[in-house]
Design brief:
The protein is of the alpha/beta class and 219 residues long. It contains eight helices and eleven strands. The structure holds 1-O-pyrophosphono-5-O-phosphono-alpha-D-ribofuranose (PRP).
Amino acid sequence: MKEGWKSLAEYINIALPKGRLGEKAYDIFESIGYGCPSIREQNRKLIFENEENGVRYFWVKPSDVAVYVERGAADVGIVGKDILLEQGSDVYELLDLGIGKCRMAVAGLKGTRVHSDHTLRVATKFPNIAREYFRGQSQEIEIIKLHGSIEIAPILNMSDVIVDIVETGTTLKENNMEPLEDIVQISARLIANKAGYKFKNRQIREMCEKIAALREGKE
Ligand code: PRP
């Protein structure tokens, strides 16, 4: 840790995904007593800490959260199950936070047949999830890896189907597409570094218990 920052060991270090999901996750942490008021200030800072309750937050790219946690730069983090499945990260998955709910699905232009003797061209940001799913279906595929706006691929006949996140279904509908097969339900998970979970076991378990109690109170 560079000068001016306390060592990692003195804090619970939490990696939050930048964006709406991270903000919702922070609300949860705040309401169970891990608040860090400076995080609410609109600025470009990426690290926030509250010495009083011993927490430090990092804002990171959603797809990088599990990397920070796996390498122990963060003790815990919030990450979508989609990213966990895709990256196969070596971390403990401690809790389903019940936020960021959506599903991973195969989708295509209306009336598209998913299964055939031909190799299916699949456009996706999630090649590992797609491969695993179609292996289970004994369907030959060719992956076309994209980084966003996946729905365009079948419209331009660059792929037969897509494997992507469906939340409200609006993007599919507005592009004349439909979900064809559901693959897996997705939501945000609390993950922990394996060594950190041992060394900071009491603090991390206490955090989990408080989150679980909050969730039970809401259900
Ligand atoms: C995600 C996903 C779909 C869309 C689904 O895209 O890849 O395109 O949201 O949401 P909906 O069912 O509520 O319409 P995102 O907004 O992350 O942008 P992207 O196209 O860059 O992946």
